[in-house]
Amino acid sequence: MIEKLAPLLGSLEDQRQDALKKRSKGMSFVCLAAVVWLGVAFAVAQKVGMFGLIVALIGFGVTFAILHSLFIGKHRKKYEEDYKQRVLTEVTRAIQSGIHYKPHEGISKQLFKSVGLVESRIDRYSSEDLFLGDVGDTEVYFSEVKAERKDTSRDSKGNTRTSWKTLFDGVFFMADFHKDFSTWATVTPDFAEKTFGWLGKKLQKLGGNVVRLENPEFEKAFVVRGGDQIAVRYILTPDMQERLLQLRDVFGHDMMVAFKDSKVAMLFATHSNWFEPDFNRPSHDVGQIEKFVSEMQLCCSVVETMNLNTRIWTKE
Is residue 205's pLDDT more than 60? Predict the structure, then answer.
């Protein structure tokens, strides 16, 4: 595959080198502009005082950000967009022929909210790097998602303070479940019982719709809520509980799962930006392609781990 991509990677490396040169020239221009602007700022400060200096420094910050975007950021962004569109789409097609990669598309905010795993208000939302198609007989789609809430508070002096709280930053995965069901269920980390023991177990009930299952390890790891308790147990069989524990070992203890409308959705946090080329590495560096493949295959492996290609009874 690398040999087949060699001409394209060579072309992109030329583009990257050109972008690096433009970035270097742009940085020199930005630094020169910074020196001039700071000189003006201090000159203003001598005439109009500290308030003028503050205004001038704010203006400098805004100008610096604009110049950085115009002369530095845009070349890097263009290279990364081209690399994803031209190289990573081909890599996806070669490794997972049933999956289509759409780097500039994502999961809608409405779909993300609909699974019921993030109940808070979402004030800022973004999603990119959409994968969709079939893994075996199972339809899947997954994408990077970041959801945030804007919090505003006021102190005793009446000053307003605004902050952004990250509600979720990671990968959203959804697939067709191998059983039809009509209820809903959520599987979320059981922080209450882990932290407060028997008291935490009592506190869980305050949220309502708690479903108790047979597996002690699963009960310690997760709290399950759902509509119809019998139907939830039909979904979360002992075998499925074991499989979800396996996924938790892979994706981390913050993993959340929802079952709704005969589909399964999963959220798992990531500690870096997935599905991205590294601008500071040569285009033909195999390591960044291997990283992309590893991340994509890890998401696709959910189908096998959950045994979703095995259709149950009347599920087509």
Answer: no
